[in-house]
Amino acid sequence: MAGRNKIYNEEEALDKAIKVFWEKGYDNASSRDLQKAMGIGMGSFYLAYKGGKQELFVKSMNRFFSVYPTYALSMLKTVENPIEVLRQYYYVMADEEGLFGQFGCYFSNAIIQVGDGELKGNAIGHITNIVRAFSTALLRASKAGIIHPKIPQELWDVYLLNLWTGLNTTKSIEKDTQKLKAFIDFSLRSFE
């Protein structure tokens, strides 16, 4: 007996699941919340995501990674001076009107909120990939003499990661976007 064909667009369904996970967090997003948002029934949900909510969350993180940082990561591969690309990336996190400003970083939230080691590891992997792309672009610019970093290269990943995760927490306390952007500018001066 052949299986039923999917009657929904998987990318659209994942985008809707991302919204639910982002707004409610992994633990507070029920399978029913996800099914309703995705527009699929319980049978289709468990047929598509045999691992249930956990499998869906992994797929949502992979989908998120394939959509949100893509433009910045592709820019970093070709731009001579990556500082402005990094600045704009961090500015998006600080913008209270955007999804990052409202709900925080999808990956940082997962690291903090999720107890499951596999899920946490997936989120850590995505953030690490982005931070390494930042560092690779900075190293290329440094070798070309375009930027003159003031901190040791072996600390770049930790520095950028700390700026990322620190900003994710700080913006919950400090609501003045201009102050947050000034902090980002000040932090990135360490690479100019």
UniProtKB/TrEMBL annotation:
Every copy of the HTH tetR-type domain together lies at 14-57
Q: Which GO terms describe its molecular function?
A: DNA binding
Task: Spell out the protein name for this chain.
Answer: TetR/AcrR family transcriptional regulator
Sorted keywords for this record are: DNA-binding, Transcription, Transcription regulation
**What organism is this sequence from?**
Mucilaginibacter phyllosphaerae
User: InterPro entries under this entry?
Assistant: Homeodomain-like_sf (IPR009057), HTH_TetR (IPR001647), Tet_transcr_reg_TetR-rel_C_sf (IPR036271)
